């Protein structure tokens, strides 16, 4: 109970109310002391009026008047004359004198606190102004014990009243906190627990309805998080299912391509010059297809083969890509230019670099074919002190904004209509395996340029 939010609010409310009462208590007790002393002065003035009415009062009557006023002596100044009106023996010398005329708040509070904490009784003198203009000054002597007892009694009553006020206030605040904060927070926690038990069930997604602004913002943020997570889980499930299907297809396709390799020897023996010239390219294509199937099977096991890094001529890899893509062209003519310098060598995996460049060139070629107009795909290469750079650019229409937002995300970053976006996602992963980076360097109405960055240096930790 006390560790709950509402329980702590209850305790804090009681503490703060009592603290406020303490701050109020000091001026209150000072005011009570002033009223108490002023009352004694007024009673003493009334007692002195009896003496003014009759100069000869019996000793017993004087003692009764003094006892009724609660004082030992009464001095009244009238007509510039100081007169001892009533008197009785003082048991001890006067300990303190208090002048209530024009007393400021700070002296009153200081004197009240001193008197409140002085336990012993002493005789005090109190000076004030008579009421109704009955003189210029009235002075009495009295014991301090009745004053202190009255102040203690008043303080106890103030304390009890403060406790009652704090308990009542805390109770209503407790109810208000439970209704406005605790209950909505528990509702959020219940939604979180329900969602955690079945994240795929959309019924567990919270429906924001809190009236408090901060809680409403928290509920909306939770709803957004739950919605995104549910979509991600569904996407992950679909990817897992697709991965299983691709692995099965790749397995069967690998067997088919392996069988196709057996027929290439006979094709190479053909007397047709064109067939003899195209046979090596066919062999290389089938070899790469088999390698791709094997890599796909490894990807289905949630692992991409580590690149086998070696120094290679970049122009040769690009030429193989260009030759394959020229054969795959349909419709309008798309020119593929290999402008990589002959002497440019880079450290990379030949097959993986071929896949990356082929994906980029193929995307560019298909984008140009979709426009129905001729175009040019250009591959260039250069090196800096730290990297080898390969750029693939085209003269196509550029990428759509949606494609740019999720460019390297599977099934979301397709650069052409009907594309899955897997090519760029796989290419980016392969380049990262080299320690490099695949970037969209530029995309506008005049064309698109991708850049492959392969680092020269070794990885440092």
TrEMBL record:
Membrane-spanning residues: 6-30, 158-177
EC number(s) per entry: 2.7.13.3
Enzyme class, first EC level, given as a word: transferase
Reaction catalysed by this enzyme: ATP + protein L-histidine = ADP + protein N-phospho-L-histidine
Pfam families per UniProt: HATPase_c, HisKA
Keyword terms of this UniProt record: ATP-binding, Coiled coil, Kinase, Membrane, Nucleotide-binding, Phosphoprotein, Transferase, Transmembrane, Transmembrane helix, Two-component regulatory system
Alphabetized PANTHER family for the sequence: PEROXIDE STRESS-ACTIVATED HISTIDINE KINASE MAK3, SENSOR HISTIDINE KINASE
Coiled coil spans: 215-242
Taxonomic placement: Bacteria, Pseudomonadati, Pseudomonadota, Alphaproteobacteria, Rhodobacterales
Domain Histidine kinase: 248-458
Descriptive protein name: histidine kinase
GO molecular function: ATP binding; phosphorelay sensor kinase activity
